[in-house]
Design brief:
The strands form 3 sheets. A 6-stranded mixed beta sheet has the order 7-6-5-8-9-10, with helices on both faces. The protein has helices spanning 5-9, 18-22, 62-72, 92-99, 103-115, 123-134, 138-146, 148-151, 155-168, 177-188, 192-201, 210-217, 224-235, 237-247, 252-269, 273-283, 298-305, 310-315, 317-322, 331-340, 343-349, 353-365, 379-391, 426-440, 464-472, 483-490, 514-524, 562-565; strands at residues 49-50, 56-57, 204-205, 208-209, 403-408, 444-449, 453-455, 497-502, 530-535, 551-555. The relative contact order is 0.11. Helix 24 (426-440) links the parallel strand 5 (403-408) and strand 6 (444-449). Helix 3 runs parallel beside helix 5 (103-115). The longest helix is centred in the middle third of the chain and has 18 residues, at 252-269. The chain contains 28 helices and 10 strands. By secondary structure, the protein is an alpha/beta fold.
């Protein structure tokens, strides 16, 4: 059970080693490391607490843990490389806050994260909402059910929410009055045309269909127009044709809804390209409305391109090239290049630079990770994707802090993959992330390290490929993740955040543990300094103390804006 990557956004482990199973105190993220010569005060603006093993920590509040869970699906300061099944055990912060009488505050956070797009994955947000709906606290339940329509904006989300509620209900049916009202409000809260679009684009997910939800929730339409759409879902197109003919023959609104639904139904079984194109142009039908076999047609795609979202366009560039729609010196290719290099379109679509980079690498290879689709890359499109990568930097807001980026340049960075994508290796991903940060943050230094530490001079004008080639030529060796903090402390460098990009595990260090090195740096230079360790192809070994608000392990194979803007 779970949402696809695309559905997750519409709203990021491997097996543990023997050492991890034994709980080595130096690599187990749940066992803090003692600080030498600890100081009870790290800063005047932050209250610290002593730890039972010695040293002092920044306390992590339950609200902070909640935000971690909403953003990453875990609340312990780690970010898994592989999406995990969401459970009550992983959402302890949600349950704790509800028990403390702060359930309504939890729901408000859930709504804010969803509406503001503050998370790369919508699944933890929906899970938290379902959990609130299934708890016994009445104010929490009331607020949660009221928020369903705001959080579950598309049917895919609603189906996922319904499935979660069923699983969290235990032996009960889960279809009480509050649940039925929330589902009814979702359908009745949309105008008829928008509802008709939604129920035809997203017909079923997670083993649920609109017919199932309407039946179980006993949905009563708010008016006859919405009722027409719901009747179509339950009884089909013929039933509403008869109703409109008998009761609403002279009412344009009813005729318009009927015409749209008839167009959707006619396209489903049509093999006439000209007719399907006409329906797409007239009713703004999307790719999901078109039969799969018809998506091999150049003419069909010409019509779809007139109103295609940027994310969908980037995802389908290979297909468009395969079918010959993208070719030399044609107007369509020129129009696509124009869209890809339009900074305003990229900004409004919230396209992340790394997503563009992946698309660029994939397109240049002439084949996808899956399937049998092959194409010959078009130079103009490849160039446009390269420019789009840099233009999309503007979509990330700067923190204006002093940041040190430390790149692991060991040989192991050439192995593994990012986000299951064999086109992006850890070293390439790390270089790209560094360049994203450099273009956004005005105060950034880049260093290279293994067991030694050296400055890496990178120009903003260089391409990722150029920097990648230079990094591959640097001396290699074993890795000491503590070196960035040791170097900054010895040189008295004021750093607000250390961003360490390392290989397949984040437990590589020498005489001093990275956590201890950070605390010594805090003691001697900057008490507010934070540490982010990006394990590019991770095993489950962590550096960050889950009780320290200023540390975060990211066991990732991909980067998202959430790691830049939502770090607790």
């Amino acid at each position: 059970m779970g949402l696809s990557n695309e559905e997750n956004k519409e709203g990021g482990g491997d097996a543990a080693s023997d050492e991890e199973e034994l709980g080595d105190p130096l690599i187990d993220a749940n066992i803090p490391v003692m600080v030498r010569n600890p100081s009870p005060v790290l800063s005047e603006s932050h209250t610290v607490v002593p730890h039972e093993l010695g040293g002092f920590l920044w306390p992590v509040t339950d609200l902070c843990r909640l935000r971690r869970f909403l953003c990453m699906g875990k609340d312990d300061g780690t970010y898994p490389a592989k999406e995990e099944d969401l459970t009550r055990e992983l959402a302890k912060s949600v349950l704790t806050l509800i028990q403390d009488g702060k359930g309504v505050d939890v729901v408000n956070e859930i709504v804010d994260f969803s509406v503001q797009g503050r998370t790369p994955r919508i699944a933890p947000v929906i899970f938290s909402l379902a959990l609130c709906c299934r708890e016994s606290d009445v104010p929490t339940k009331r607020a949660a059910y009221k928020a369903v329509s705001s959080v579950c904006r598309i049917p895919t989300h609603l189906f996922y929410f319904t499935e979660l509620c069923e699983k969290l209900s235990g032996l009960s049916s889960g279809w009480g009055r509050a649940m039925r009202r929330a589902i009814s409000d979702w359908y009745n809260g949309r105008d008829a045309m928008r509802l008709a679009f939604s129920v035809t684009k997203y017909r079923a997910r997670e083993g649920w269909s609109h017919r199932d939800l309407l039946r179980l929730a006993h949905v009563k339409p708010r008016d006859d127009l919405v009722g027409l759409v719901l009747k179509y879902v339950i009884k089909g197109i013929k039933s509403i044709e008869e109703e409109v003919a008998e009761k609403h023959s002279d009412e344009p609104k009813f005729e318009r809804v009927l015409e749209y639904l008839k167009a959707v139904e006619s396209v489903k079984s049509s093999r006439d390209e000209e007719f399907v194109c006409k329906m797409i142009d007239k009713h703004r039908l999307t790719r999901e409305h078109i039969p799969t076999k018809m998506l091999k047609s150049r003419e069909i795609w010409k019509s779809l391109l007139s109103d295609i979202p940027m994310t969908s366009l980037i995802r389908n560039l290979g297909r468009l090239t395969t079918i010959g729609l993208i070719s030399s010196n044609n107007d369509i290719s020129a129009e696509i290049v124009k869209k890809l290099t339009n900074s305003e379109i990229l900004r409004s679509a919230r396209i992340h630079p790394f997503n563009v980079l992946t698309a660029s690498k994939m397109y240049s290879m002439g084949k996808g990770n899956k399937g049998k689709l092959l194409w010959k890359p078009h130079p103009a499109i490849s160039g446009a994707l390269d420019r789009a990568f840099y233009l999309s930097f503007a979509n990330i807001a700067p923190t204006n802090q002093q940041i040190m980026i430390a790149l692991d340049v060991s040989g192991v960075m050439d192995f593994g993959m990012c986000a299951g994508n064999t086109t992006i290796r850890p070293r390439y991903a790390a270089v790209a992330m560094a360049m994203v940060t450099m273009h956004v943050e005005p105060n950034t230094s880049v260093m290279a390290f293994t067991e030694q530490f050296s400055e890496l001079v990178i120009s903003k004008e260089e391409t990722v490929d150029e920097v990648y080639d230079r990094v591959r030529e640097l001396p290699q060796g074993t890795v000491d993740v503590a070196l960035p903090m040791i170097h900054a402390r010895e040189c008295k460098l004021h750093i607000d955040a250390f961003m360490v990009f390392t290989s397949h595990r984040s437990d590589s260090f020498g005489d001093i543990h990275p956590t201890q090195a950070l605390r010594e740096y805090r003691r001697d230079v900057n008490a507010k300094a934070k540490l982010l360790v990006f394990a590019m192809a991770s095993l489950k070994a962590g550096v960050a103390d889950p009780n320290d608000k200023g540390m975060l392990d990211l066991w990732i194979r991909f980067w998202s804006p959430a790691t830049h803007s939502n770090i607790p």
